[in-house]
Each structure stands twice: as structure tokens, then as C-alpha cells.
Design goal:
alpha+beta, six-stranded mixed β-sheet, 27 strands, 38% helix
Length: 619
């Protein structure tokens, strides 16, 4: 048991979310912008500043080439994104998102956070799970457990709602991934019976169909191809996402994009409408793609639709009416809607965190591996050692032999997948067992042991039964980051954390300055006629001093002094208003410096920033 708080994180393709258990109940922690989910978007400005979350998403249209979204789809690969000549791995970008979630949680809880449970799609392979742990480590988090998103959401749903034995089907269609899991809940034991899915199916794909349609409509009217115009494509992407969301509740969505492009005849605008029926036609093949995994999960669990007692929707894309209709057709029952599909995964992760900390008892989670694990054998065949949907943690040993006479070494190629030929499955690791006594083929006995931990991460051991010679490898990846690189990136992330804090403080001060100026001007407009002119002039001088400081981008310490001075003048104005005086006796201080303690000023600006959702520049 530990007294240190452990957070649960849903690291999503489109949005991410963080939660914690307090008083026995999981709660979502709001971010510094005051919202419950954080866009999984990272951007770099022209000055090299790093933006994460909503502030990064807001500037995506004007800075598309340096804005990164949906990086989760590249986890576990050797993909790199180049910004200003610097290559960033998916782990690094994900770590930047995790850093913000960590910082926001610390601000909300008022204490340092170093441990977390992070969720991944059920169909994430070993490489993708390890990449997620690497991202957490880079962000300064000890990842105590990696759990599957559908499993987490079932915990959130079932903790207080399911009192008796039940079978739950979790349908998880997020921004970039799709999973179906079937769980049996028995006396506090959540046992995953089967899982299926598609790591490249989600809301992004629905958005892309609308983008393609809008691009074609614009081409039809104006004969301009927008494909190479990054800013125009960013605007189409934003419009497509908005349209998709509107069509979940409305039958028609109007799309207006003025000045989308231009040619020799002048600016060109896009003005059109998309009906729900047309949207359903555009995305019918994507909805159809969700049907197969549902049947697969039912088959693997040995169940029929009639056996399913609760259907749980997870992920924002489950709000699409056609998706819900298809699921109801398969299962013959309405899905549960008592839990927010955007928050269920993070809530479940928080419950798992509380189980690990000892705060939540009498709940046991039995998860499964999503894909079979095995090795390549003679003839390039894939031989399964552990079958998919095996409960974890688990281990199994199989005995193999040599295929050639006189072999003194065997190569062990570890794979994950369901194809019978090795080359069609995901390569996880390769290693060699050397020093085997030469013998005729078929004589040596090589014991290969697979151990899968509670995170679904694999360790493989090969041992020669005759000599005891063995070789063990903890499967990381054949591509991606090695431990030294993870450590280097972790230190780099810590450096950026300081820079990000400085940026937040500067932005908080700016927001406070703009807010105080607006408040002062409103007060003068309302009560100025009742005050002495000299008193009002001094207030206006304080306002003008702050505005000049903002315009000239003066040193933050100077701006802080000007803001503190304006703060005091507002207090004097308020005192005059409530006492009914004209303000002639109030003592005003221009360029006020040392009266308000620095800690109070910082606290004030932090509290204000935490309440704001708008871009400070839009204030």
C-alpha cells in the first residue's frame, strides 16, 4: 500500500483525460483550461515554443506544418516527425501530452505525481504497449500498469452499477482505434473473456471521408485542388470534425468556409450542406468494419448476442447514430448511456490505480492478451506459444529442436499475430542461443518459455535442456527507442517542463492584465460619473500603463508591478463605490511594486488561467 496518489490516464488519439479516486469514487481532473479532456495535439511556434492541448489545437489552422495530432496511431513504429530540422518519435510527442496531464493533475491535487496507470487499445501489440510505457517514463511517470481501454471502461461502469454476475460487451470506437471486449463480472472479479478490434479505425477515418467529400465539392465548383494547401486542408479537417459531431444530433449540417482559396479571379469560398443520410453513405464501409470484430469477440468467448446483458459505449465516435444502429442490430439491445464515453476509460484507469495503491479492495481485474504470441519455426511458419485471449499474467513453455545436423546455434524470432506464415505477423524480437553441443537434427531439446506480465509485456527465455545454457530477452522492439535514448529524452522533457511553466506564468500574467483592464474600464463606465475627475484620471493612467506594458512586451517583472498597481486602484475604486465617497481621499499608486506578495499574485493568475477556456489572445 502507498500513500502517494496514483493517477489514471487515458492517452487517446484525439483527446486525453486524467482521473483519480477520491473518497472511493473516481473523478475526472480538469486541466488548466478548465475542461475535462485535453486535445492530444502538440505544436511548435515560429519562436520554438512548445504548445500542448487546446492552445495547440486552436492554432493548427494557421500553423499546420508544425502541429502534430493523432500520433497514437504511430506508437510502436519507427515513424518520426521532423519539426525545424529535429526528429521527434511518437514516444516523445506522447510524452509531451503526458507531461501536461501530469502537470495539470499536480496543480489540481496540490502535490507531486510520479506514478500512473495508462490505458491502451486492447488490440495494441507488445511494441505499442512498450512504446506507451516509454512515453510515460520520458514524461517523468512510473507506469505501474498498462491496461486495456475497454477493460478500464468496464471497471468504471461496473464498479457500483453491477451487483450480480453479468456479462458486458464494451464497444470502444475512439479517434484512431477500435476495440471490442467481452467481460464477465463475478463477485467483484472482472474477467476479460475475449477481445478483438482494429488499430486503424476510428473517428479520424470518419473525418477523412468528410474531408475528401468537401475537397471534391470545392473542386467541382471552383476547379481548385486543395490537397497541397496545408492551411486549407487544416480548415477542412476542423470543419469535417464539427460536421460529424453536429450530424450526431441534427439531420443536416451547414458548412461555411469563406476565403478558402483564391485564383486570378479572386477569393473562393466553400458553402455547402451535408445531410446525415449522405454522411452515412460516405462512411458506410467504416461502420461495416466494426461488425466483424463484434462477431469475432462473441465467437472467441463462446457466446451469442443473447448472452450479453450490458452493452457499454466508449469513445466519442460511438455517438454516431449509424454506429449505434449497427450495434443494436447485431446484439438486439440498447447500449448503456449512463457513463460519458469520453471519460469512461480514464475513470477505469483511476480505479485500477486505486486497486494497486490498496485504496480499492474486493475488485480483481483479469485481462487478456489481444494477439497470439509465438516464434518462427522451419518453413517460415508461425508457431503459437500463447494463444490470444489468454488471461494475463501468464507463462508457457514449449520444447523445440534443431532443423539441421550439427547446429551449434539456434535463432529465436519472436512474433505476435494470427497469420500462419511468420512474415505476415508483427516481429517483436530476435536473439540467438549459442553453444549448443553439435548433434543430429531433432536431437537437441530447446525449451522456449514465454512470460507475459500484467501490462501485457513479454519476456522470452530459451534454454538448452542438456547443458542448461540459456538466453533471456525482455521484448522491447526491433525498432524504436533503446533505454539510453529513453533516459536522454526523459531529461530533455524535464528541461522543457521548466520552460513550459515559465510560459504558463507569463500567459497567466497577461490574462490577468487584460482582465483587470477590462474590469477597470467597465467600472469607470458604470460609476465614473459619480467620482472625482482626478481620481478617475489616475485610474485611467494605471490602465494605460498596463496596456502599454502589454503592447511593448515589457519584462514580466515590470508588467507584474504595473498589474499589481492597477489591482490596488481597483480596490480603491471598489471601496469608494461601497462607501459612497467620490474617491478624492483614495491613495493611488502608479507603477505599484512591493505591496502584494509575489505568491499571491502568482496564485491569482494561476486560478484565473485554470478557469479560462479561450485563447488569451482572443480575450
Amino acid at each position: 500500500m502507498t500513500s502517494e496518489k496514483i493517477i489514471g490516464i487515458d492517452l487517446g488519439t484525439t483527446n486525453s483525460c486524467v482521473a483519480i479516486v477520491e473518497g472511493g469514487q473516481p473523478i475526472i481532473l480538469e486541466n488548466s483550461e478548465g475542461t475535462r479532456t485535453t486535445p492530444s495535439v502538440v505544436a511548435f511556434t515560429s519562436t520554438g515554443e512548445r504548445l500542448v492541448g487546446s492552445v495547440a489545437k486552436r492554432q493548427a489552422i494557421t500553423n499546420p506544418e508544425k502541429t502534430i495530432s493523432s500520433i497514437k496511431r504511430q506508437m510502436g513504429t519507427n515513424y518520426r516527425v521532423k519539426i525545424d530540422g529535429v526528429d521527434y518519435s511518437p514516444e516523445q510527442i506522447s510524452a509531451m501530452i503526458l507531461q501536461k496531464l501530469k502537470a495539470d493533475a499536480e496543480a489540481h491535487l496540490g502535490e507531486k505525481i510520479s506514478k500512473a496507470v495508462i490505458t491502451v487499445p486492447a488490440y495494441f501489440n507488445d511494441a505499442q504497449r512498450q512504446a506507451t510505457k516509454d512515453a510515460g517514463e520520458i514524461a517523468g511517470l512510473e507506469v505501474l500498469r498498462i491496461i486495456n481501454e475497454p477493460t478500464a471502461s468496464s471497471l468504471a461502469y461496473g464498479l457500483n452499477k453491477i451487483k450480480e454476475n453479468s456479462i458486458i460487451l464494451v464497444f470502444d470506437l475512439g479517434g484512431g482505434t477500435f476495440d471490442v471486449s467481452i467481460l464477465q463480472v463475478t463477485d467483484g472479479v472482472f474477467e476479460v473473456k475475449s477481445t478483438s478490434g482494429n488499430n486503424h479505425l476510428g473517428g479520424d477515418d470518419f473525418d477523412q471521408r468528410v474531408i475528401d467529400w468537401l475537397k471534391a465539392e470545392f473542386m467541382k465548383v471552383h476547379n481548385i485542388d486543395l490537397a497541397s494547401d496545408l492551411m486549407a486542408m487544416s480548415r477542412l479537417k476542423e470543419a469535417a470534425e464539427k460536421t460529424k459531431m453536429e450530424l450526431s444530433t441534427a439531420m443536416t449540417s451547414d458548412i461555411h468556409l469563406p476565403f478558402l482559396a483564391a485564383d486570378s479571379t479572386g477569393p473562393k469560398h466553400l458553402q455547402t450542406s451535408l445531410t446525415r443520410s449522405m454522411f452515412d453513405q460516405l462512411t458506410a464501409h467504416l461502420v461495416d468494419a466494426t461488425v466483424g470484430p463484434v462477431h469475432s469477440a462473441l465467437s472467441d468467448a463462446g457466446l451469442t448476442p443473447d448472452n450479453i446483458e450490458h452493452v457499454l459505449l466508449v469513445g466519442g465516435s460511438t455517438r454516431i447514430p449509424a454506429v449505434q444502429k449497427a450495434l443494436k442490430t447485431i446484439l438486439g439491445k440498447e447500449p448503456e448511456k449512463s457513463i460519458n464515453p469520453d471519460e469512461a476509460v480514464a475513470l477505469g484507469a483511476a480505479i485500477q490505480a486505486s486497486i494497486l495503491s490498496g485504496e480499492t479492495r474486493d475488485v480483481l481485474l483479469l485481462d487478456v492478451i489481444p494477439l497470439s504470441l509465438g516464434i518462427e519455426t522451419a518453413g517460415e511458419l508461425f508457431t503459437r506459444v500463447i494463444d490470444r485471449n489468454t488471461t494475463i499474467p501468464t507463462s508457457r513453455t514449449m520444447t523445440f529442436t534443431t532443423s539441421d545436423d550439427g547446429q551449434s546455434m539456434v535463432d529465436v524470432h519472436v512474433l505476435q499475430g494470427e497469420r500462419e506464415l511468420a512474415r505476415y505477423n508483427q516481429s517483436l524480437a530476435k536473439f540467438s542461443l549459442t553453444g549448443i553441443p553439435r548433434a543430429p537434427r531433432g536431437v537437441p531439446r530447446i525449451e522456449v518459455s514465454f512470460q507475459v506480465d500484467a501490462d501485457g509485456i513479454l519476456q522470452v527465455n530459451a534454454r538448452d535442456a542438456a547443458t542448461g545454457i540459456s538466453q533471456t530477452v525482455k521484448v522491447t522492439r526491433t525498432q524504436g527507442l533503446d533505454p539510453k535514448e529513453v533516459e536522454r529524452l526523459k531529461k530533455e522533457a524535464e528541461t522543457f517542463a521548466t520552460q513550459d511553466l515559465e510560459f504558463k506564468e507569463q500567459m497567466s500574467l497577461k490574462i490577468k492584465a487584460e482582465s483587470l483592464c477590462a474590469e477597470a474600464e467597465r467600472s469607470i463606465e458604470k460609476y465614473g460619473s459619480k467620482m472625482d475627475k482626478e481620481f478617475i484620471d489616475k485610474i485611467n493612467q494605471s490602465i494605460e500603463a498596463v496596456k502599454t506594458g502589454l503592447k511593448d512586451e515589457v519584462d514580466p517583472s515590470i508588467l507584474k508591478s504595473l498589474v499589481a498597481g492597477l489591482d490596488v486602484t481597483l480596490l480603491d475604486l471598489g471601496r469608494a463605490i461601497y462607501t459612497g465617497t467620490s474617491g478624492s481621499g483614495a491613495e493611488l499608486v502608479q507603477g505599484y511594486v512591493n505591496t502584494t506578495p509575489e505568491a499571491d499574485a502568482n496564485s491569482w493568475s494561476d486560478d484565473l488561467l485554470d478557469q479560462l477556456e479561450v485563447d488569451p489572445e482572443e480575450n
